[in-house]
Amino acid sequence: MKITDIRLGMLRVPLKTPFKTALRTVDTVEDIVVMIDTDDGRTGYGEAAPTAVITGDTHGSIIEAINKVIGPRLIGRDIADLNRNVQLVQTAMERNTSAKAAVEIALYDLWAQLYGAPLYRMLGGGGDPVVTTDLTISVDYIDKMVADSLAAVERGFESLKIKVGKDIGLDIERVKAIHAAVDGRALLRLDANQGWTPKQAVSAIHALEDAGVHLELLEQPVPARDIDGLKYVTERVHTPVMADESVFGPAEVIDLIQRRAADIINIKLMKTGGISNAVRIADIAAVHGVDCMIGCMIESAISVAAAVHLAVAKAGIITKVDLDGPSLCTFDPVDGGVEFNESEIAITDAPGLGIRSVRGLEPLARA
Ligand SMILES: C[C@H](N)C(=O)N[C@H](CCC(=O)O)C(=O)O
Ligand SMILES: [Mg+2]
């Protein structure tokens, strides 16, 4: 099975409600879809999310990276030669992790299709191919966040990811109000998206711990590059601290673990550059006994499907799931693929990612 063509399309899916974090507000998934075609008539699918404030990737950089740099290396390559193909993707250029992720996802999709197995099985997974995700509550007025949290609990979500990091005093009030409202019906995860200083983070978490607010974890309280600050927080609070924007690839994870700067690692395919490095991170974390979450950016059911397959394959070490991208969307553009049903996500027996087609793609002309 040889690669004959690499096509790109623009996917636009409005969100049900604006997604607001300390870093940005976004109301539509506007992602680049990669389709890799082979000489036996198959197509592998991938997706890149342009999250410039986190990865530095934009629509323009993703398109240019795939069309001009990564794609040309792959034309004519044999899909069975996965490790070499992945190496060609990863060594094509520095950074550009979202573009690399999209291409890798499509390569893994085709590789699993070649052997007629769902991707999670090719990654060594067995057992029940089902995961349970949280739902993100955007940072907003307190009343709105409380209403959104109650609505999420009514929809069956038992874990809520509360966005904070905008205003420390208000953030404490936000979390106390949500905690009182959901009254033990959902676990609370906080994500400050780099919005606090180390000292603010410690005082906020102490205030919440002292008020009896149990938190499952605190995600990325301080700026991404402030690893000393992350360690400062981790050493001073009981709540487990998770690194997100601070860690992209395996080398950063090794450094973070050696410095004991966080308790948990958030793996996202858009940060790792795809599945190969995500597998490495999960394996490194397993060696050190560090738990991982699998997360996503504002992504649809294409790239999130790949994350679900990885989560099932690495269920022993990926113990927390934040794959709510498709639940935030007004519709699912994918025919086939993984079945997203609110908090429950299930993989079918279809080969690869199981994606038959993607509706409403706007073709992107080659440069
Ligand atoms: C969508 C997911 N639940 C999430 O919250 N991801 C954010 C980043 C999303 C973005 O800005 O695109 C995170 O974990 O920081
Ligand atoms: Mg985060």
From TrEMBL:
Cofactor remark from the record: Binds 1 Mg(2+) ion per subunit.
Kindly give the Pfam families that the UniProt entry links to this protein: MR_MLE_C, MR_MLE_N
SMART domains, per database record: MR_MLE
| InterPro entries to which the protein is assigned, alphabetical | Dipeptide_epimerase, Enolase-like_C_sf, Enolase-like_N, Enolase_C-like, Mandelate_racemase_C, Mandelate_racemase_N_dom
At the top level, the lineage of the source is Bacteria
Q: Which keywords accompany this UniProt record?
A: Isomerase, Magnesium, Metal-binding
Q: Where is the Mandelate racemase/muconate lactonizing enzyme C-terminal domain?
A: 142-240
Q: What cofactor does this chain's UniProt record say it requires?
A: Mg(2+)
EC numbers, comma separated: 5.1.1.-
Q: Check the record and name the Gene3D superfamilies matching this protein.
A: Enolase-like C-terminal domain, Enolase-like, N-terminal domain
Homology family: Belongs to the mandelate racemase/muconate lactonizing enzyme family.
Could you identify this protein by its name?
Answer: Dipeptide epimerase
Q: Which gene encodes it?
A: tcbD
